[in-house]
Amino acid sequence: MRSPSSACPSTGLAGPAGVGDDDFAFYYSFFQDAAAASPLALDETLAAAMPNSRRRKRGGADDAAAAPNQDDGPERKRSIAKIITSLAAEGHADSTGAADASRRELALLESNADSKSQAMMDYYAKMEGSFDAEADSEAAARSVRSRLSASAAASAVAAVEEAAATNPATASASPPRAGHHQRRLWVKDRSQAWWDRCNSPDFPEADFRRAFRMGRETFDMICDALGAAVAKEDTMLRAAIPVRQRVAVCIWRLATGEPLRLVSKRFGLGISTCHKLVLEVCGAIKSVLMPRFLQWPDEAAAATFKDGFERSFGVPGVIGAMYTTHIPIIAPKISVAAYFNRRHTERNQKTSYSITLQGVVGPDRAFTDVCIGWPGSMPDDQVLEKSMLHQRAAAGMMHDACLVGGASYPLNDWVLVPYTHQNLTWTQHAFNEKIGDIRNVAVDAFARLKTRWACLQKRTEVKLQDLPVVLGACCVLHNICEMRREELEPETPFPLVDDDTTPENPVRSETAKQARDSIAHNLLHRGFAGTTFF
After folding, report:
1. pLDDT tens digits along 448-483
2. Residue 510: HSE in the Cβ half-sphere, 13 Å Cα cutoff
3. Of the chain's two ends, which shows fewer C-beta atoms within 10 Å, N or C?
4. How far does CA 65 lie from the centroid of its chain?
C-alpha cells in the first residue's frame, strides 16, 4: 500500500478521457483495501452512490466479475475513475443550479423592492401635492378675510368720524386714550366691574382691607415699589394691564386662596394671564422687597432683639424664636415618598404631601430668616442642618446669640431648647415654661401668616418648582403688614397642626448643656419662673 504523501491525487478532476492510471491509484488502493476488509460493504457503498442505470450496469459487471479465471484489475480502476468523475460532474451541476436559483430569487426580491419604493414615492408625491393645494386655498381664504376685516374697520372708522362730525359733544365726552389701540375682535370681552369698584376712591376701606388683607396705603406703597419691575408697555393689539391691577391679582389670590377661574372672573382677565401675573408679581416681591423687609438683623438690631426678649421673658442672649411648619401640596410626579407626610396622614386619615417652611421670628413677630422647600418627610433637625441659618452659625455669625426652638430641634451652642427627659425638677419645669413662651412668639407669627394668606391653608395650583417663590412673597407681605400694624381679619388665628418630633441626638454640645442649666438656675432664683408647673 502506498504512503499518503506519494498517493495524493492531482489538484483537479478531468474528464474520463484525460484520466491516467496513476491519478486514481490512491482511490484504487483505498477501495481495494476496503474490499479486502469487507467486500459486501464496498458493493453496498458503490451501489448507494450510483444511479439505477449504473446499478444495473454494475450488476452486470459484478456478474461478469464472478466468472472464474478473469483478470479485472485495470477494468476496476477505470470503472472507479468513471464513477468518481460522474459524481464530481453531478455535484458541479447541482452547485451551478443552486447558484442560478439564488440569483433568480435575488433579482426577484430587488424587483419587488424597486416596485414598492416607486409606489411609496408616488404616494408621497400625491400627498405633498394635496397639502400644497390645501395650503394655497387656506392662504387665499386668509387673504380674503383680511381684506374683508380691513374694509369693515375702514367703514367703522368712517362711521365714527361721521358721527363725531355730526355730534361734537358726544365725541368730546369720551376721548380716546393716548397710545391705546382698539382691541381686535378675537380678544374675549370680560367684565372688570368688581375691580373697578375696588379701585375706586369711594370704595370702603373696611371692604378693601377684607379683600386684600391690608389697607389702601400699604397697597399703594407696594404698587409704587414694584412699578418698575412689573410694568408693561402697550402693544398694537391691546393696552397693557396696569400695575395696580397686576399687584391686586397677586395679592387677592394669595389672600383668599381662590382658584384661578374665580380670580379670572373677578378681574376680567384670562386664567393663564392671572397665573402668569401671580408668578411675576411674587418674583418681583422676592427680588425687590425681600432685601428691604426680610433680612437678618445687624448688630444694632440684634442688641435690640436681645433686650426685648430678656425684658419680656428673662432669658438672655435670645435674638429670635424658631419654628417649622408644613405647607400642603399636590402629590408630585417625582420623589413622591420624600414629600409624603406620615404624621399628617395618620392624624387626618388622608394621604398628605407637604413641603417645609422654617422661619426665625423677632419680638415684633416679623420674619428675619426663612428656609423654604425641603420635603415634608424630613424632620425639623435635618431641615435646620440644611438651611442657610446653620451655615451662618458655622461661619461664626451667631456668637453671643442664640435662637429658641421647640423639642424637635437639637441643643447646641446657638439653639436653646427645653428639657425633654422624664422626672423634671422645678428648675427645669420653670425653664421649659419660659422657653415655651418665647417659642409661642414664632408660633403666633406662623398662625398669623397662614390666617392672613389663605393660600397656605390648602393645596394650591402652583407647581412645586414655583412654590418657594410664592411662599417667600407671603412671608415678605406678612412682614410689611406687621411693620405697618395692619389689623388681621378674622381675629381668630388659623390653628397650626404641626407635630413635634424628638431628634435622635437631642444634645449636641456639653457646653450648651451646662449653659442651659445655668440659665434655668438663674430664672428660678431671679423670680422670672412662673407657677404653672406646680
Report:
1. 999 999 999 988 888 999 999 999 999 999 999 999
2. 0
3. C
4. 95
For 437-462, the DSSP string reads: HHHHHHHHHHHHHHHH-GGGSS--SS
What are the DSSP E strand ranges found in 330-366?
A: 353-361
| pTM above threshold 0.85 | no
Q: Encode 380-404: b = buried (16+ Cβ within 10 Å), e = exposed.
A: bbebbeebebbeebeeeebeebbbb
* Helix or strand (DSSP H, E) at 55: helix 52-65
Is 38 exposed, middle or buried, given 0-12, 13-18 or 19+ CB atoms closer than 10 A?
exposed
CA–CA gap between residue 438 and residue 460 (Å, rounded):
31
Tally of helices (H runs) and strands (E runs) in the chain = 20, 5
Q: Tell me the C-alpha distance between 418 and 405, whole Å.
A: 8
Task: Give the integer Cα–Cα distance in Å for 42 and 34.
Answer: 6
What is the pLDDT averaged over residues 514-521? 92
Q: What is the mean pLDDT of the chain?
A: 81
Strand ranges of the sheet holding 402-404, from the earlier edge strand across to the other edge: 367-375, 353-361, 318-329, 402-404, 415-416
Selected residue with higher pLDDT from 457 and 188: 457
Predicted confidence at residue 324, as pLDDT, reads 95
